[in-house]
Design goal:
Bound molecules: biotinyl-5-AMP
Structural class: alpha+beta
Radius of gyration: 17 Å
Shape: globular
Helix content: 25-40%
Largest sheet: 7 strands, mixed
Mean pLDDT: 94
CATH architecture of the largest domain: 2-Layer Sandwich
CATH class of the largest domain: Alpha Beta
């Protein structure tokens, strides 16, 4: 991909976590744009210490190392652009429209989860280089084939692209398409107008807007209706007539919009 920052692609047969791998590479000074792609993760991680499930060789397990320079309050957009690029790729290659469940899940039209995104920042930077943010995405491509492939707790909440299109899906085509879509989105993060564009794209794709949501926030449980995504990528929720802005949190769609 000429002109792309994503040229150093490390294809790993097995690794504990592609995010962990790239965080270590970042600590050792790796530049922006390194990509880790794994066939299997022995300790794939979700947010808040949760696990990410994927059998070997079936799905997309990918992380990118970014060193964006942007205001701290707009960092959410860094993980959002990865979710958006994956949605772009799925739309382009398969004609399937995925929505973003705030903050960063990708959902099938029926509301089941197809992908999750985990961004991890390093507190210790290297002198003279922007601090790293590693953004990992797990995208269910060829697993599950049928619901009974899933662990019991994911039946009814998870699905895959192959279930959605009814045939196996070429993972390499998707990786290529995702990285192509990601390049201009990451480029856009460098300017205020570009970031506003990414936030607008997030708002357009976000199925949380209009949904009734439950949100866990530092021990507080909010219930309300999500009304908007701000320019910073944060979620606005109408809680009994008062608008609360949620910067980070675990969201449950109590009633799905469509
Ligand atoms: C996420 O966390 O959704 C972020 C997942 C990020 C995974 C990628 S894979 C490449 C990179 N390297 C890593 O180590 N991680 C990243 P969260 O919102 O916390 O969702 C986790 C929850 O989703 C789990 O507790 C399950 O309920 C559910 N889950 C686990 N595996 C799933 C799957 N394959 N499909 C759908 N849901 C799943």
């Amino acid at each position: 991909m000429p002109g792309s920052r994503f040229t150093d692609i490390r294809h790993l047969e097995t690794v504990d976590s592609t995010n962990r791998y790239l965080l270590d590479e970042a600590r050792a000074g790796a530049p922006e744009g390194v990509v880790a792609l794994a066939e299997h993760q022995s300790a794939g991680r979700g947010r808040l210490g949760r696990r990410w499930e994927a059998p070997a060789g079936a799905n997309l397990l990918l992380s990118v190392l970014l060193r964006p320079i942007l205001p701290a309050g707009e960092r959410h957009l860094v993980s959002a652009v990865v979710a958006l690029a994956a949605a772009d790729a799925v739309q382009l290659e398969l004609g399937v429209t995925l929505s973003v469940k705030w903050p960063n899940d990708l959902l099938a039209p029926d509301g089941r989860k197809v992908a999750g995104v985990l961004a991890e920042a390093d507190v210790v930077g290297n002198p003279g280089v922007a601090p790293p943010i590693v953004v990992g995405i797990g995208l269910n491509v060829n697993w599950p084939v049928v619901d009974s492939d899933l662990p019991a707790e994911l039946v009814g909440t998870a699905t895959s692209l192959c279930q959605l299109v009814g045939r196996p899906v070429n993972r390499l085509v998707l990786v290529d398409s995702l990285l192509r879509a990601l390049e201009p989105r990451v480029e856009a993060l460098a300017s205020p107008v570009g970031r506003r564009g990414q936030a607008a794209d997030l708002r357009d794709r976000c199925s949380t807007i209009g949904a009734q949501v439950g949100i866990e926030l530092d021990g507080e449980h909010l219930i309300g209706t999500a009304t908007d995504v701000t320019r910073q990528g944060h979620l606005q929720v109408d809680v009994g007539g008062a608008i609360r802005t949620v910067v980070a949190g675990d969201v449950v769609h109590l009633r799905f919009r469509s």
